[in-house]
Amino acid sequence: MAEENNQSAGAQAGGQQDKPQLQFALQRIYVKDISFEAPNSPSVFQQPFKPKVGLNLDTASEKVGDDLYEVVIKVTAQVTHSEEGTTSFLAELEQAGLFRIAGIEGDQLDHTLGAFCPNVLFPYARECIDSLVNRGGFPPLMLAPVNFEAIYARKKKREAEQAQGAETTQ
């Protein structure tokens, strides 16, 4: 009986070795590009600060080596005076990370790169934007949490609609 258990355990272990082993590891987090402009300084500081925030967020990823992927979150925050419409400041950031990912393929890899990895990077982008704006002499810009799952789902839906539209025009 003990021999049978050892043989079945050995067969299971052998079967698991045939499958690629799942690996996910964050290798590095870094700022790829950063910019801050306050084009109407110092006059913007001489009036009450009534901000209107415009936020643009995008993600991108690319394979840069064997099982190594770079994921980038691009954040653009443009704050204008709500009454006058003049730009108070423009902050842009590309927060990046290198991820070692193995054993994940196809749609699952696409989902990992498009939603999971940006969720890991966003707190760093958020802190960097907040610090940058504060150093520019403005009150902190505390970005709300972002649902990258929903952004990814919308992107996939848009791609499917575009593919369907392309099929109907042919």
From TrEMBL:
Localization per record: Cytoplasm
Main location: cytoplasm
UniProt GO molecular function: unfolded protein binding
Superkingdom assignment: Bacteria
Keyword set includes Cell membrane: no
HAMAP family: SecB
Protein name per Swiss-Prot or TrEMBL: Protein-export protein SecB
The organism of origin for this protein: Halomonas shengliensis
Gene: secB
